[in-house]
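Tokens for ATPase. Go.
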Amino acid sequence: MKQTPLALRMRPVHIEEIIGQTHLVGEGKILNRMVLAERLASMILFGPPGTGKTSMAIALAKSLDIPVKKLNAVADKKKDMEIVVEEAKMMGQVVLVLDEVHRLDKAKQDFLLPHLESNLVTLIGCTTSNPYHSINPAIRSRCHLFELHPLTANDIKTAVKRAKEDNEQGFGTEDITITEEALDHFANSANGDIRSALNGLELAVSSTPSNPENQIVINLDTAEVCMQKKSFSHDKGGDAHYDVLSAFQKSIRGSDVDAALHYLARLIEAGDLESISRRMIVTAYEDIGLANPQAGPRALAAVEAAERLGFPEARIPLAVTIVELCLSPKSNTAYKALDSALSDIHNGKSGDVPAHLKDSHYQGAKTLGRGLDYQYPHNYESSWVNQQYLPDSIKYKNYYNPKNSGKFEQAIKQVYEKIQNDKNKKV
């Protein structure tokens, strides 16, 4: 029996075997270019768990036949890094694949820096953390930063099929049938984590007895048990899924906490964090907007926390923010105002920029009358002065119509109305 986990056995050994991440390894993309040019640079690969960071790092090194050493910034000591450097001196160059690179302490970092500078050691750091927040600038400035995206369901299917058919590292020598329903479940329930899908497949193969024809048949029930997730009642790409997404957003807009949480639960079971995140962020700005301007940044923070945590813990920040979005005051005045302005542009209702607002930072601008009568608002006590900003043809146009939704918009409504009144007094 093979003791090495399937996910490790199936790691790519060449850039062409990497599944997904075509924005980095596709034809003409940056990592593909590095390999073709045989000039691998130090880099940080960051992204959610299971997106293939370590696998990609090892595949890049093997594509160029460069010796590769794998360490962990937490578990391995400075002495282990010293050994890697000595081996690099003997072999000319080594690629150091360093997991949990964001946990690199100062002593290890100071030791590595000069060897990165000389390119004796090419560092490929792997982390689930945002490198701009978690990695020391001294290391970060010496590395390219590349973000890996969650794999799609089709990517996961490709990985599962490859493992099933591979004669050397996978199950190609065994008679295995995976039903379409089971394959879909492996792909969708993995939530972009290729390791999770391959672990589930391996458990399914090893725990399913052969039938009388000496064939292992993996059906949906087996896939559900081995992935520890029930198959959900709708397909992520089907019409029913978009119906649930629509109901989710409209429930938030309608301030129905219970309905929004219900649809959130259905989307979580479908494993569609990407669509949940998108709907939360757009709702925070589209439906809540100026009534609670902090809803947008907080929704984004919750999405980032969910992406970093992954399921099942991701449900916690999502739930907190959904309750807040539901019960927040609502206002769509800002984007409606912009839509009104866009409508005018599309219908040809525009005009020339007033001369006093035109760019005057070039020789000859004054001769053309550019910016001559511009009044700088900060020179006035209230930081406001009555001057025309819109083109002549629409100078009396009003796009923004504030509401009394939430304290913030009530406050800016007062400011807006005062400015409008002052304008009218002097017209």
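The chain has four domains: 21-147, 153-227, 239-327, 349-425.
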